[in-house]
Amino acid sequence: VLPDNVEELFEETPDYIIDAIDTVTAKLAIAELAQRREIPLISSMGTGNKLHPELFEITDLSKTSMCPLCKVMRRELKTRGIR
């Protein structure tokens, strides 16, 4: 998934988009597309190599802490006007 090909990947409108991609650019491209098309988005953030899976949390990105990937995503989405 790249900003250049994200439109092609979602020619049909899905009910939801589930993002489990590791690159920030791809995550941002999907988030922009999801907002533009009003498609609910579920994103997996920094969950790799975690030692305590019982601490796994499902929440809004704006309520996350302690995750470097979430921090970058919050900042970049804010600059793009994406909630």
What does this structure look like?
The chain has 83 residues and is mostly helical. It is built from 3 helices and 2 strands, in the order αβαβα. α2 packs across α3 (68-80). The longest helix has 14 residues, at 24-37. The chain starts with 5 loop residues before the first helix and ends with a helix. The mean pLDDT is 91.
- Counting DSSP H or I runs of 4 or more residues, the number of helices is 3
Structural class: mainly alpha
Could you tell me the radius of gyration in angstroms? 13 Å
**Approximate shape:** globular
Helix/strand order: HEHEH
Low-confidence stretches: none
State the separation between the terminal residues, measured CA to CA: 21 Å
- Helical percentage: 25-40%
Characterize the biggest β-sheet.
2 strands, parallel
Strand content: 5-15%
Mean pLDDT: 91
Write down how many β-strands occur, each being a DSSP E stretch of 2 or more residues. 2
What spatial order of strands do you see in the largest sheet? 1-2
